[in-house]
Amino acid sequence: MHPITNDLGDWPAFLGYNKLKVKEGAQLLATIEQDPFIVIGEFGQGRTAYFTSDCAPHWGTREFMNWHYYKEI
Fold this sequence. Notes:
This protein is mainly β and 73 residues long.
């Protein structure tokens, strides 16, 4: 477990995502259909995070938009 995904439980379904490869040294935190879904790593002196879907309604289902971990800004 990682603090980013710790205690999230079951995720709502997503309607789409971008496929990518996990770079060597990166940490895979979650998958969707066995493809990387959330990946973290480092680049230079910084940290990176990849979330391969979109938080907008066109890829996030109604269940995702109503999920208690999703917040509108």
